[in-house]
Amino acid sequence: VPKKPAPLTMPDINTPQGLIAILLLNEVAFRGERGFVNYTDTKAAMSAIRIELTNRLSKIPAGYTQQQIAGITTTDVVRLIAASGQYEGFSMGADGKVVIQQRITDRIQNLIGIANQGAPGAVTDAINQAVGLGNGSIIPVDPFAGRGGTYGHQASNYQGGMGGQWTLVGTLSGNRFYTVGPPPPPRRGPGR
User: Fold this and answer.
1) Are 146 and 39 in contact (CB under 8 A)?
2) pLDDT tens-place string over residues 83-121
3) CB 10, CB 18: distance < 8 Å
4) Could you give the 3-state DSSP secondary structure of residue 175?
5) How far apart are CA 138 and CA 106, in angstroms?
6) How does pLDDT run across 153-176, given as a tens digit for each residue?
């Protein structure tokens, strides 16, 4: 009789690794959801978002500030994820801990429940991908590296663009991905 695999669990969401995994799972589409193509597409989107976090923390293009790219100045991935206006459903509480909307934690629990039914399959594999990208055991590959790299994304059904100098580089798993174009010219003061 084959041994049943141990139930899949998520890392502690109060750690950077756990928070990254939750963010990645929240931002991509799974079977039956708008934007789902296949699990290869889902995992590529997770990898792109993981690269986006790294780029926003430590690879700011010349001519830009981190504030312009990421909406915050920080070296902390937790603060980056919880920064105002950056990742919908994630915010920083008054106690300095990340607050995650209930709809997100409910969705993650639903995915874990699906993964724990029967033999491991595509959902389990995708969750393990998110956990591995979060804890560094899987090295992300930027699917848009040849087009300037991933610096931002938004849901494909969002009406409107990223604004500013953002350039669309592709779509994956129900999301549009962006890089940054050339920086805007310096502003000149009156009489110049």
Assistant:
1) no
2) 998 999 999 999 999 999 999 999 999 999 999 997 789
3) yes
4) strand
5) 25
6) 999 888 777 777 899 999 999 999
